[in-house]
């Protein structure tokens, strides 16, 4: 079954939350938004999105694993591949939305559009307990995270005051599709453990501190991708660009574009260092580029002792 929903642009604009960090009083007053709801005693209601498309292997496996763990999961994800869309949201007066099967919505737009639609329409009147974005092909570390549609979907949730986790699977070399799909299993096994840990630590409070999300990068371990990572590290986003674009004039008004990995020595404690060492990198993030750093000590305490 296909269904088209026509949405006014105003329906996609959501209030931004007050975010972690130090801001002037006046700015904090303007940015104040809904605080995350207390974590429920039972299974979580999860909005699942991604940037690879609603029918991609990573999101379908995530749906199966999170559902098997007892959570109530609804996919609200892009209709087509939106990798690299970042935090983009559409400014067109309408969006086509399909509802091809129960618990699945496909939005003809970006991950941000998908999350905004999900919060406004699918979860209207009662926000989900958590937004999970991914898992996708390839890492979203360093500057890649700034352009990632996977991270962009999580940021859209944080903008609306909903806790969010971005999940990515891949090392720092070009991903082999079959091996990466195999590694998505361990990625999601860890995601289930992580969510259980957050629920246990939250008790009757919010799942994550207000305005804080987690960017999780799970490396590919072993020739078949099914190996166990060397550990879990609380990290920050490395400052390096990581990818270098090369343009060649084709002489006909077009340019050929090539991209190479330009890996420099990673900063100590960064996501690039962790993934390079075969560890799962968990970086706290917020949706406000103007505030101070997210409290890494709080995140590290939440993750203390967690294993792959």
Would you mind describing this structure in some detail?
By secondary structure, the protein is an alpha/beta fold. It has helices at 25-31, 57-68, 111-122, 142-147, 149-159, 177-202, 271-276, 296-303, and strands at residues 45-49, 72-78, 97-101, 104-107, 130-137, 164-169, 213-218, 232-234, 243-249, 255-261, 280-285. The strands form two sheets. The protein has a nine-stranded mixed beta sheet, sandwiched between helices. Strands 9-10 form a two-stranded antiparallel sheet. The chain is globular and about 60 Å long.
Tag the structure with descriptive keywords.
single chain; alpha/beta; globular
Summarize the structure.
Helix content is 29%, strand content 21%.
- Proportion of residues in β-strands: 15-25%
Mean pLDDT: 84
The largest β sheet comes out as: 9 strands, mixed
Number of continuous helical runs: 8
Helicity, as a percent range? 25-40%
User: How many β-strand stretches?
Assistant: 11
Q: Which helices and strands appear, and what pairs or packs with what?
A:
Layout: H1 25-31, E1 45-49, H2 57-68, E2 72-78, E3 97-101, E4 104-107, H3 111-122, E5 130-137, H4 142-147, H5 149-159, E6 164-169, H6 177-202, E7 213-218, E8 232-234, E9 243-249, E10 255-261, H7 271-276, E11 280-285, H8 296-303
Parallel strand pairs: 1-2, 1-5, 2-4, 5-6, 6-7, 8-11
Antiparallel strand pairs: 3-4, 7-11, 9-10
Helix pairs in contact: 2-6, 3-5
């Amino acid at each position: 079954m296909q269904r088209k929903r026509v949405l006014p642009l105003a329906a996609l604009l959501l209030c931004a939350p007050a975010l972690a960090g130090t801001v002037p009083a006046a700015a904090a007053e303007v940015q104040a938004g809904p605080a995350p709801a207390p974590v429920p005693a039972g299974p979580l209601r999860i909005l699942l999105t991604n940037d690879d498309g609603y029918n991609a292997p990573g999101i379908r496996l995530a749906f199966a694993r999170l559902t098997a763990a007892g959570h109530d999961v609804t996919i609200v994800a892009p209709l087509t591949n939106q990798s690299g869309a970042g935090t983009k949201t559409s400014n067109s007066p309408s969006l086509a939305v399909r509802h091809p099967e129960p618990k699945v919505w496909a939005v003809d737009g970006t991950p941000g559009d998908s999350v905004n639609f999900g919060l406004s329409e699918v979860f209207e009147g009662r926000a989900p307990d958590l937004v999970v974005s991914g898992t996708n092909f390839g890492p979203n570390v360093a500057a890649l995270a700034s352009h990632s549609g996977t991270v962009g979907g999580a940021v859209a949730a944080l903008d609306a005051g909903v806790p969010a986790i971005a999940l990515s699977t891949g090392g720092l070399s070009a991903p082999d599709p079959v091996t990466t799909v195999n590694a998505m299993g361990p990625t999601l096994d860890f995601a289930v453990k992580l969510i259980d840990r957050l629920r246990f630590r939250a008790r009757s409070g919010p799942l994550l501190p207000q305005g804080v999300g987690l960017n999780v990068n799970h490396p590919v371990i072993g020739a078949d991708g099914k190996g166990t990572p060397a550990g879990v590290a609380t990290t920050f986003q490395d400052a390096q660009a990581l990818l270098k674009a090369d343009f060649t004039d084709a002489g006909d008004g077009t340019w050929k574009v090539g991209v190479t990995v330009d890996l420099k020595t990673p900063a100590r404690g960064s996501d690039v260092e962790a993934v390079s060492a075969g560890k799962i990198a968990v970086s706290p993030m917020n949706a406000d580029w103007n505030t101070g750093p997210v409290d890494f000590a709080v995140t590290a305490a939440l993750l203390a002792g967690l294993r792959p």
